[in-house]
Amino acid sequence: MMLQNFRFAKFRLRLRAIExxxxxxxxxxxxxGGLGDVxxxxxxxSRGKRCEFCLLKERCAYSxxxxxxxxxxxxxxxxxxxxxxxxxxxxxxxxxxQKGEELxxxxxxxxxGIEYLPYFVFVFDELGRKGxxxxxxxxxxxxxxxxxGEDDYRPIYDGRYLSNSYEIKTLKxxxxxxxxxxxxxxxxxxxxxTRILSSxxxxxxxxxxxxxxxxxxxxxxxxxxxxxxxxxxxxxLLEEAESVxxxxxxxxxxxxxxxxxRQRQRMKMGxxxxxIAFEGDLKExxxxxxxxxxxxxxxxxxxxxxxxxxxxxxxxxx
Length: 318
What we know:
Blueprint: E1 7-17, E2 21-22, H1 28-43, H2 61-66, E3 85-88, E4 96-97, E5 102-110, H3 117-130, E6 139-147, E7 153-157, E8 169-170, H4 171-175, E9 185-194, E10 197-198, E11 201-202, H5 209-227, H6 235-240, E12 245-254, E13 257-260, E14 265-268, E15 271-279, H7 286-295, E16 308-310
Antiparallel strand pairs: 1-5, 1-6, 1-8, 2-4, 3-5, 6-7, 9-15, 9-16, 10-11, 12-15, 13-14
Helix pairs in contact: 1-3, 5-7
């Protein structure tokens, strides 16, 4: 497994409502939609032209971040590769924020995508001026913080100046804490709807470890190849995954919707949430599983879907 080049950075954005905000329970689609719209209006000089037909697409920040083209369409499932960012919206389900209340969301940038942090900060600031949600309520981007250690966030933007002294992490950084975990039994808690396809169908409760590892390594491999300059070979791990058993499943289905301006219709974006427990020799998988806490897993990860966390020893449900 070769992931020496894989790198990412995680940032926390602290927003302050300057008007009443009316947002849906799941806010990832709202923030992602507004972010993409303002980003394109800010940097695009070929208004109205689709990225795939634009002569400037290879040099465009918007095209790279939001319409990430695949170099070899024969290898990718679609014409695009994974985007170099993951947006994690505020986790709470509240739908109304009064003037003065704070919202916190997270942004993970992968590989070359880290270079575009100033664009994201600028666009989040502009989105606050434009307004978001029902009624277009405004907010102020007060602070951006960089993740250093676990829950150790340090400010890099104070509303005026953006510092480049943020922390860039590698797989080695993630691996340092793996030895403290139980390497034979773990539970994974899926926090946002997780959309994983198997044989053309969305998985609901039939998730198993080989399928999980196949989708996780597939996503990490594409992120690495597209944004970090090299794709690893996970073939041996996929074979080893067959020996790890599922010893507990406690999942529910969530069906949030998003409006697609491109297709001009509402789309169901259902996925499972809850916990899955695995048991077996997990030593060779744990660094990747911990990395997946940042990269997410499954479809629509850029919207914040597919977020999970390792919660320790597995629980055996009836």
